[in-house]
Specification:
By secondary structure, this protein is of the alpha/beta class. It has nine helices and seven strands, in the order αααβαβαββαβαααββ. A seven-stranded mixed β-sheet has the order 3-2-1-4-5-7-6, sandwiched between helices.
């Protein structure tokens, strides 16, 4: 997988990703929902429905950002969520959201690195990553950490942008994410490079079959993917 950095500076990808999300955290939720036209909410709902059958699940949401997925998963009766993210700016926005929704007793947000998680082995029933794995500095290392903190038989669920294959969705999506999003995102967030990175990192991410092969390689089982919204994104499922 080609290494794509937000700013092409000497700092590591990890450091640049942290800086980038700190920079855009003040407009992230607004732009995220605006660019997706609300489709992202349907994707998170699909993940929740997959997890609802697991009673009293302890869930870790890696690269939680402003905790949107944690909030959605809080609708699962008896579930408790921990959201982990490298960006303090994003977590600060998430903390406000969690408090405003009265979920502070259900959702705990933790500042940390996805490749060095501050959790014991075999701690969680479910690990989720929503639009975050492409930001890992070392993809396999981050996935191995997800494997480590999962209980035996636990589920990894990943939601990630995909490269649509069919005309005209492929052409429209590439134009929208490659031209419209960096321009509009740059206007509102004052960081055009951040939204260009979001496009470039999606394009550089392994294709669906190759990513499933990586999940196999690091030790997950029963790995599969399901395209959503005409292949704009994929939900990947894996079992420890």
């Amino acid at each position: 997988m080609k290494t794509v950095k937000p700013y092409n500076q000497k700092e590591s990808k990890k450091e640049q990703v942290e800086e980038m999300f700190d920079n855009i955290s003040h407009k992230y939720d607004f732009l995220n929902h605006f660019f997706s036209a609300g489709i992202d909410k349907r994707w998170r709902k699909k993940i929740r429905k997959q997890i609802e059958s697991i009673p009293h699940a302890n869930i870790l949401d890696v690269a939680t950002g402003t905790a949107d997925l944690c909030v959605e998963l809080s609708k699962i009766e008896g579930a408790n969520m921990i959201g982990l993210d490298i960006s303090k700016g994003m977590l600060e926005k998430g903390e406000v959201k969690v408090k405003d929704k009265g979920l502070s007793n259900r959702i705990k947000l933790v500042h940390g690195d996805s490749e060095h998680m501050p959790f014991e082995d075999n701690s969680f029933d479910v690990v989720t990553v929503s639009f975050g794995v492409r930001n890992f500095q070392n993809l396999e290392k981050g996935l191995k950490e997800c494997l480590r903190v999962l209980k035996k038989g636990g589920s990894l669920i990943i939601l990630e942008f995909s490269n649509p294959k069919n005309f005209p969705v492929k052409q429209l999506f590439n134009f929208y994410s490659g031209s419209v999003m960096p321009t509009v995102g740059g206007m509102f967030s004052k960081d055009k490079k951040a939204y260009k990175y979001l496009h470039d990192s999606s394009r550089a991410f392994p294709n669906r079959e190759d990513f499933v092969a990586i999940l196999d390689k690091v030790g997950f089982n029963n790995n599969s993917f399901t395209p959503v919204s005409s292949g704009i994104a994929c939900i990947y499922n894996a079992i420890k």
